[in-house]
Write a structure and sequence with these properties.
1117 residues; alpha/beta; Alpha-Beta Plaits; 61% helix; elongated
Length: 1117
Amino acid sequence: MVPATIGTGPVRVAERRVTSVLFGDLVGFTTLSEQRDPDAVRELLSTYFDRCRTVIARYGGTIEKFIGDAVMAVWGVPTATDDDAERAVRAGRELIAAVREFGSEHGAPDLAMRVGVVTGEVAVTLGSTEEGMVAGDTVNTAARVQSLATPNQVWVDEQTREMTTHAIAYRAAGSHTLKGKALPLELWEVNGIAPDSAAGVAVPLVGYARELGLLKSEFQAARASSSGRMLLLVGDPGTGKTRLGSEFEEYADELAYRVRWHRGRCLAFGDGVAYSALVGAVRGRIGAEDTDDVPTLVTKLHSAVAQWVPDPEEAAWITPRLETLLGLSSGSYERDDLFAAWQTWFERLGADGAPVVWLVDDLHAADGAFLELVDHLVRASAVALFVIGLARPEILEEHPEVATGRRTTTVHLEGLSEPEMAELFAGLVDGLAPAARDVLVERSAGVPLYAIEIVRSLIDRGLTLGEVGRLRLREDADPEQILDPATTAGLQVLITSRLDLLGEERRTLLQDAAVIGQTFSAQVLAAASGRDEQEVASILDELVARDLLTVVRERLSADDGQYAFVQTPVRQVAYQMLARRDRRIRHLAAADALEPLAETSGDLTTIVAEHLVEALRLTGPHDPGRDGLVRRVRRWQIASAERVRALGALGEALVLYGRVIDELDDPEEAVRLHLVAAEIAFELGNPEIVVQHATAVFESGHAGADDEAQARMWAANATRILGRLEDAERILTPYATADALDGVNDVIASFVAGAWAAVTLEQGRAEESARWDQVALLRAEAADDARATYLALNSMALNAQQAGTRALQDALLEAGLRFAREHGLRRELVQALVNRSDALISVDPKRAFGYATEALDLALASGMAGIAAYGQTNLMLVQYVTGAWDELTETASRRPAADGLDSEERLYDYGAVVALQNLVATARGSEAVAPPTWEELDPTSGGQHGQILLMHLGTLAAARGDDRQAIGLLRRSFELAGTVTGISEEAVLVWTLAIERAVATGDLDVARSLLAELDDVQVLRERHHAERLRLSGTVAAADPSSDPALVEADLRAAVSELSDFGAPPSRARAEATLGRWLGSRGRADEADALLLSAAGTFRELGATRWLDEFGLADRTP
C-alpha cells in the first residue's frame, strides 16, 4: 500500500510559462537630458515612468524593470489571459503614442519610442514582483528585436504575429540575424488594428457522421465474418478521436446482442511501457482494482480464466502467461508463445459468438512489439474481434506498416469546416449572436477541442446560465468578454488562462497530477504531493466540476474509478508550467509513491524507472544526491528491461538493455546483460548486434567459463549467418576439442558443440560436423534438457541430408518431430514441421503440404515471423511443383505487416519466398519481385547468406529475360548450396532453371556441366529423378548428335514419372520438349497430342512465356 503522506509538499520557487515580453526604449532622450539639469531630468523620468506604468497596467501587463530610459514589461505573470500577446502589442502602440505626447508637452517633439514584443517560454520566480521576476531567451530576444525596430514602431516575432493576426495588421519587417540566434528571425511591423477586432460541456457530434458510420460497418463486417478487423482513427489532438470512440461505445451498448468491450491506453511516458493497453484490457475484464494486492489479483485472474477458458489444459497454459502480463509472476516466455496465449484469451471471450471490441487509446505511443501484437490479433483471430486504434498522425511516420494490414482501415480526421464549426457552437451555447459566433468559428481553426475550451472558459467566467447541455449566454454578458477567450489561436495560452483561474492550491495539485500521468488515483497523488488524501479528493472533485478532470467510469477498464485529464493538452500545459527543479522533485515523489504499487502491477515497473530517469536528467552534475539516484535508476531500468523481455517485446527490451549497459559501471553485471542482449538480438534476427554484445563479453576479462562459452556460441552462430565462416571458426577455437568443454555447463556445452557442427557443415567438413553433433547430443542428454536435445537431433538430420543418407535423415526428422510434440516445444515443433515438410516435397507432396501448412499456420498464430518464412517457403515449393501457382501468390502475401522485404535482414528469411515468386514470373512473363536493397548486396559474401542472395539475383535476372546473367548467378548459387547446407529443394529448382535457360540460349556445354553437378551430390529423390530424366532428355534433344532412342526414352519416362508424381508444370515442359522433337522428326501425329496437352497446361498455369518459348501460343484443341 502507498503511505498516506511522504512529508510536506515540496515548496515551489519557480515555474515555466508562455508569456509575452515587451521592451521599449526612448529615442532622443539623451539629447533632451543634456540640455537640462539633473533634477529636471529626474523629474522627467519620473513622469515618463508613471505614464508607462499607467499604459501597461491598463492592458494587464506587469512592469518587470526600468533600465535607464527603457522599460520592460511582461504579460502572463502572475496570471495568464488568453489574449496576453494582443494586449502587449496594443500596449506597445499606446506607449509610442504616450511618448509622442510626452515629448510635445516638454518641448521635445522628436522624442520617440521603439518597441519589441516577443512571445515564448520563460522561467518565472514565484511571488516576485520586482526585477528578476522572469528570465530566459525570450527576454533577451525582445530586447534585441526592440533595438532593430524603427522609431515610433512596434516590431514583433513570428509567434506573436500568429497569435494576434486576427486583431492586429502587420507588414513584413524582413529577416534579421540576432546575437545568440543560430538562424535568422522573421520580424513583423505593426500596421494598425485589423477590422472587427472589437467585435463541463455537452458536445454535439458534428461533421463526423461518415466516420461513425464506417466504425459501425467495419464492426459489423468483423461480426459477420467472425474474424479480426481494425479501424485506425488518425488525427491531431482535439479533432474528435476520443469522441468518436465514445459514440461507438454508446452504439454498442444499444445493440440487441452482447458486445464484450475492452479499453486500454498506450502509455506515452517513455520507452519500456510494454503492452500497457493490453494490461488495461485484461485488468478491466477480470475486475482488478488499483488497491488489490497480489493474492487478490491472482484470485481474480484465476476466477476469470476458469469462467472463460473451460478446457483445463488450455487454462493451465494461458494462466501463467496472463500472470506475466500483469506482473504477477516472474515467468519468462518467448514472444510467440505469449502472442498465442493472449490471442487464445480474446478468442475464448468471443467463443459464444459475442463480438469482442478493444479500444486502444494513444496508439501513437505504442512500440513496435505492441503494434505487431495488434497486427497478429487482427490477422489471426478466429472470432469477431474489432480493434479501434486512436492515434496522432505521427504513427504513420514512425510505423507506416500499421496502416497496411489487409484487415485494417485507416480514417484521417481533418478539421471541421466553418459551417460545421458554426453548427458546433450553436449546439454548445444558445443565444450566441451570429457575428460573435463567426469570430469564434474563425479562432477555433476547425478544431473541436478549441471550441470546447472556449465554451469552458465562458462558463468559468460566469458568462453562461443553465445546466450542461442547455447552456445559454447571460443577457447582460459583455460582447467583448464573450470574444475574450477566442482572441488567441494558441491552445497553450488558452489553457493556461483557465488554469490561472483555479487559484494556487488547485493549480499546483493539478500540476502534481500532470507529472504522474494522464490517469491517476487520489491515493497516489496524495502520496506524491505530500497532502492528506481526503484533502486531495476534495480538490479533485472541484477540478472535475470545472471540467478539467473526469472520473473514469468505463466498464471493464483498469482505470475505472481513477481520475483522468479531460484532454491531453491540459495535462501537457500543466506540466510545462513547472520549473526544472519542481519537475525533478515531483518525478522523485511520483517514483516514491508508485514503487509499492509496482510490486502488484508489473506494468508500473517501467513507469517508476522513467520517473527516475527524468529526475536524473533534471539533476545537476554536482548534486550530492546524484550518485545514489544513478544507482536507483539503474536498478529500476534493469527491472524494466527484464519485465519487457518477459512480455516478449524483444525490440524494446534490446534498446533498454543497451541503454543500461552503456551507462553501467559494474563489469560483472555488464557481462550478464550483454549475454541477455546477445540472445535477444539473435531472436530478432540481428546478427551484427549479436556479435557486438557477445564479443564484449569474451573480451571483457570478467567473464566466467560458462559466460565466455555462451558468448562465443552466440558470436559464432551470428558470424556464420553473416557468411563469415572463418571468423566463426576463430571465435570457437578455444573449444576446438570436446575435452575443452569439460568445465562448461552441459546445456551451454551442447550449444557450443552445435555451433561447431553448423560451422563445419557449411565448410563442407561433414565428418567433423557429425562428431560435434554427437557431442551436442551427449551433453544435452546429460543435462536432461529438452530443447538442447531437440536441437542436437535436428542438426544431425541436416548433416544426414547433406551426406545423402535419406533413411537416416527421415528417421531423425521423425524423432525430432515426436520429441517436440511430446515436450511441448512450440518453436521447435514449428521447426520440425518445416524440416519434415522439406524432406517430403519431392517424395510425397500431399504429406509435405500438410506439414508445411501446419507449420505456417502455427508460426503465424504464435507470432514467429522468422521461422514462419520457412514454412511459407515449403508450402510455396509444394504449390510451385504441383502447379497451384495462384495459391502460391496468395501464400507469398502471408507474412506479418511489419515484415517489409526491403532490408538486408529480410533476405535470410524471405529470399526463397521471393525466388519462387520470380520463378512464376519467369514462366508467366509478369513483373518480377525486386526489393531494391537486395540488389545492392555483395553476391560474393559466401555462406548461406551468399547462396540465398545469388539465388535471388539469378531468378530475378531470369524473370527479367536476361538469360546469360541468370545462368551464371544460378550456377554459383547451386554450387555454393552443395557446400553449405546440402542441395535444398530451392537449389534443385535453381539448378533446373539454369539448365533450361542454358538450353534456350544454345549453351549446351553449360547445360551438360550442370547435369553432371547434380549427379555429383547424389541426393536424388522421386521427383528429382524424374526432373533429371526430363532435363537430360531436354539437353540431348537440342543436340543433333544425340542418340534418338535415348532422347525419346528419357523424355517419355519423364512424362510418365512426373505425371504419376503430380507435377503438371514439369510434366508439361517434358511433353512440349518431346512433342517438338518428335515433330522435327516427322512424327506429327504423336507430336500434336503432346503439344496440345502441354499448351493446355501452360494456359491453366498462365505461363505465357512458356507458350511463346515452345511456339504454342496458337495451339488450341
